[in-house]
Amino acid sequence: MKTRSQLFCIIVCLLMLVQPGSASDVPDDVWNGAERRPAGGLPDGSYALYRAGTKDAAAAWYGSPTRRYRHAILGDDIEAGSLHVATRDGRMFDFHLPESEVFEDRTPRITDLDGDGRFEVITIRSFANAGGSVAIYGLRDGKLVELAATDPIGRTNRWLNIAGIADYAGRGKPQIAYVETPHIGGTLYFVEWRGAALVPIASLPGFSNHRIGAREQDLSADIDFNADGRPDIAVPSNDRRTLRVVGIEDERARELHQVRFPAEIKSTMRSSGRCVEMALRNGQAGRVCPSP
């Protein structure tokens, strides 16, 4: 006969196994890149994969759906209260935000930001009284911890949307590009992770990579427009009818090119070789390529 302490342990262990975000929630085919909604995750969330298909792959996703931050910028008022990471070898890590914060995002991003062979998770985190920020998390001493963050915008219901992660400045490591307040005169920022800070290195006004209430967050694409061997970024203008291509030159963000379309840019933009392709709200397709 089992003792009360043994029974308590069994119950606790079973509860841990079915908690939202447990390692058992990652289906086998996700490790090879299959699209799945995480069990216990956001209704419109998905897994982000690092080194998909390898034995050292990792997956990141949001969990603990909550209505404690009723901004509804992404189409509903359900945001995430936690971040989860699983590794292919079965380890599981969780990070839970306090009640005054949420992840106002659908799917995190996961990549190696500093080239040390370890992944970082890049998120959009919002504060109840101060709005959105970019926050980076990683594994340190066996725990998922915050590594760096931008200052929040400074006002509730003010959001930002990440546009890209690449070495736009040619420094040998990626920068994070994001549009702050994409619905009310957005500014494109480039920030770089240095120690415990995300340091702004360049910015340019007049952008929007999101439409209020839309699920679609990926209205941007990387493109080597000027053929200098490093990525530039294509992001819509404030009204999302002009595609603006921006690069970092001489430590400044500079517009390299722009194209006006007959309708608003609607869908995810994709890079095809040196060109960028997108769907417009009038049903037509848009395409931007550098001059020969």
Descriptive account of the structure:
The chain is globular. It has one helix and 20 strands. By secondary structure, the protein is mainly beta. Helix content is 5%, strand content 43%. Strands 5, 6, 7, 8 and 9 form a five-stranded antiparallel sheet that branches.
Set down the secondary structure blueprint:
Blueprint: H1 4-18, E1 48-50, E2 58-66, E3 79-87, E4 92-96, E5 101-103, E6 109-111, E7 120-127, E8 131-140, E9 143-149, E10 160-166, E11 175-180, E12 186-194, E13 197-207, E14 221-223, E15 232-236, E16 242-249, E17 252-260, E18 270-272, E19 275-279, E20 285-288
Antiparallel strand pairs: 1-2, 2-3, 3-4, 5-7, 6-7, 7-8, 8-9, 10-11, 11-12, 12-13, 14-15, 15-16, 16-17, 18-19, 19-20
Question: What is the overall shape?
Answer: globular
Instruction: Output the helix-strand order.
Output: HEEEEEEEEEEEEEEEEEEEE
How many individual β-strands?
20
Low-confidence stretches: 1-23
Mean pLDDT score: 91
Radius of gyration: 20 Å
Distance between the termini: 80 Å
What does the largest sheet look like?
5 strands, antiparallel
Percent strand? 35-45%
- State the share of residues found in helices, binned by percent: under 10%
The total count of helices amounts to 1
Structural class: mainly beta
Relevant terms:
mainly beta, 1 helix, 4-stranded antiparallel beta sheet, about 290 residues, 5-stranded antiparallel beta sheet, disordered N terminus
Summed up, what is this model?
With 292 residues, the protein is mainly beta. It is built from one helix and 20 strands.
